[in-house]
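Quick note —
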Amino acid sequence: MRKYHIIFLSMAIIIGLISSCQVTVTETANYDVSGNVVNAEVATTSSYYYGMSSTRVKLTRYEDGVLRSYSTYTTYLSSGGSYTFNGVENGTYKLTGELSGYTFVPMYVDITGSNTILPDLIGYQTPSNSTDILIFLQWDNTDYDLDLKLSAPSGASSRTVVESSSPSQTSGSANLSLKRDVKAPYDLTGSKEGYNGTSSSEPRVETIRISGTPYYNSSAGDVNGVPQDEVRIYIDSYGRLKSDGTFDTNNQYITGLTDNSIPAADARLFIMQGSTLYGTWEVPFDTAETTLHVASIKYAAGQVLIYSAGNISSVNADENKNAVYGINKGVRIEDESSIVIIQR
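Predicted structure written out below.
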């Protein structure tokens, strides 16, 4: 019997110790977050999610430089092109999509109580040629009409520009195409009446595809200060709808001003090669610029180099382009220790 008395006494001591302890429970905040999926190579006159209604969307926690696959949320695209995750814990996540025959631009996002709207997830048909380069411009402020532009050599002493007024060009053996062009939903007076612009509910995404190898000649010399083995990528502000209802094309800075007299467009650029993310560039704030040279692509025999823009002043004789300063360099997605988190 003594044996049992000892056991009962020990249990009484344990219960007493537990009852005397104070246990602190930390609650983790959970949020419902939502966003849209956009087919980045479909014209804005079609449904922006055209052909992608079966997309599976995933959020995977990114913590201490590592993707935590055990902490993954999944959902599917709704019939209206949007998606919603319920009960997501706050933190940093990798946002991706899955759909047979399509590639999605991976994005890193912070989810907090003040940030429950996710960026538009960009998808496109996986290129049959893995060397194709796709460039995506995305922005959040729908009052802006931004334009994605590309300047490429077209010969030993000439260059061509891909933009909304000239959406398809050739350079060497390459086809250079503006695949998706967002147009302001207003005329210059701010009126929507009779103006065939892009709806304000449409995702703000523009796309340029480079298929093939552009002309390059490193010994041809520069054209207006630009080497003839270099393709340059620009973001340009066409204008912004102001609070007084007018659409202003003068001094509407992509980067905004600190006093918020001119808000930022909240823009970013992605470059994909085939189905691999080369880099993400967040446009800086408060630099009062209407045109930004964000990145360049250099071609050489058997080599393609993509890099962030430096202090380069011009692209064509009729354009004076300011370079982006202090911008994040693109990093390959395999390097999960160095990422660019999208700020919203």
